[in-house]
Amino acid sequence: MKLRPIINKKGQIQSFIFVIASIFAVGIVLFFLNHMFDAVYTELDEYLETSDYNNTEAHVALQEYQTATNSIWDYAFLGILMGYIILLIVTAFSTRISPVFHWIYILISLIGLLVGVLLSNTWQALAESSEFSTTLTRFPIMNAVLGTYYPTFIMVILMIFLIILFGKPIGET
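Given the sequence above, the corresponding structure tokens read:
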């Protein structure tokens, strides 16, 4: 018996759980990259201050670049977050599904909510570390979304996803 690949697997609940984990992973990666780059820029800045290149164009440009990149990482996270939400809405809108599966989706969504709560607790543990306190101040949006409001955010997105997925008349895409 030959196995056929399943085609057209969009709008499934697994994509929602994937988005929950992906948003957290993107946030962690951006957070650690910013922490690492800031440490490199700080060391370079300290080196330039003690060398003959103090107050030169390279030193001033490095300080300006460090200031600019520190604030842009948080907005990059917000853009990626909005992109994921838009993709979830589009896939939910473009999928036909029977209302019979509504209760199954709600039960599996509770697993996604549990995953979101666990990831939010992980972010809170990371945020409590004194080593990352200065880096955390540069991420107010990410800290609010992943830390304090991540389970609430997941529930709102889940409700929008389910309303769009099951709110269409049967037979329409």
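The chain has a mean pLDDT of 82. Try to locate this feature in the token string yourself.
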